[in-house]
Amino acid sequence: MQDKTHLVDEITGHRRMRRNRKADWTRRLVQESRLTVDDLIWPVFIVPGSNILDPIPAMPGVNRMSIDRLVEAAKEAADLGIPAIATFPNIEMDLRDETGSNALEANNLINQATIAVKKAVPNIGMITDVALDPFTSHGHDGILRGDEIVNDETVEQVVKAAILQADAGSDIISPSEMMDGRIGAIRRGLDAAGHQNVGIMAYATKFASGYYGPYREAISTAGLLKGDKNSYYISPANGMEAIRDAAFDVEEGADMLMVKPGLPYLDICWRLKENFGLPTFAYQVSGEYTQIKAAAMNGWIDGERVMMETLLCFKRAGCDGVLTYFALEAARKLAKG
Ligand code: PBG
């Protein structure tokens, strides 16, 4: 009778996966994916006023910042080596209306923030969103006519907003409102306005997700939103549709693609990268951040470890980088080595 150990040796003796895992040096040598500070984009929330750091209850550790505080934060981010920030404004309620007209004010909160950051921290990239949800009284990303979010009229407005954002110094326009045809329209609009060097990061595949809850609290759209966004975001059930949607964005001139939310959609990240080969980013959205923070605050998981693991997993799934509320925390940790 052979003993068990012997049997295992005979069958599997030549396949020892653990050889490469045996020591720290072998593990480092064979490591396939790596997270560096160059992979991080930091989404930030802006509020009017000065010297304001307003904590967002559903996002422990994240603050809404007035522009002066944002400039300080952007300096810190740049010093840590973070390549870019993405700004999201919390617009005063009395400036919000049916069509989101404040998006067409050259001097609105988001454009003021871009101007201030670009002046004080010229070496950090500014990524700005042109969706109308921070500006509308109903919380939708587009113009609401009756009970329809009208596509082409929204696109027209979004193009104008994009040009104003580029005028203010935005480096990359990232349209998140998922209207059809917007990427081509924004490209043509930017070019006609002399902004050939301003890029477009398409929210190529944005899913109708429950993970956006804390974000809607952060920019105060949660209480406003009438109905849902299912008529313009992609169903979480549809992978092929997401690829088709992204293909149009590529055709229309997107420079970069984004998948949102992140972790539940790693398959989409992989498929976009495989299909198009464009720089591809995941947005680890507010609900993903909150889940990790909440579990960590309860002592149920090691928050820092899970933060670094999730960020690395985006790289393994083919992403070139991640928009994450953890950007500063992760950058500090990476700096420590
Ligand atoms: C809408 C928008 C959303 C997010 C950013 N811009 C989704 C939404 O409110 O429907 C979500 C970001 C996050 O959850 O971190 N244009």
TrEMBL record:
Tell whether Lyase is among the UniProt keywords: yes
Enumerate the UniProt keywords alphabetically. Answer: Heme biosynthesis, Lyase, Porphyrin biosynthesis
Name the residues that span the membrane.
none
Write down the Pfam families for this protein, in alphabetical order. Answer: ALAD (PF00490)
Return the PROSITE patterns for the record: D_ALA_DEHYDRATASE (PS00169)
Q: What is its EC number?
A: 4.2.1.24
| InterPro entries (alphabetical) | ALAD (IPR001731), ALAD_AS (IPR030656), Aldolase_TIM (IPR013785)
Reactions that this protein is recorded to catalyse: 2 5-aminolevulinate = porphobilinogen + 2 H2O + H(+)
Copy the pathway line from the protein's UniProt record. Answer: Porphyrin-containing compound metabolism; protoporphyrin-IX biosynthesis; coproporphyrinogen-III from 5-aminolevulinate: step 1/4
**Subunit comment for this entry?**
Homooctamer.
Q: What family name appears in the similarity comment?
A: Belongs to the ALAD family.
Q: What is this protein called?
A: Delta-aminolevulinic acid dehydratase
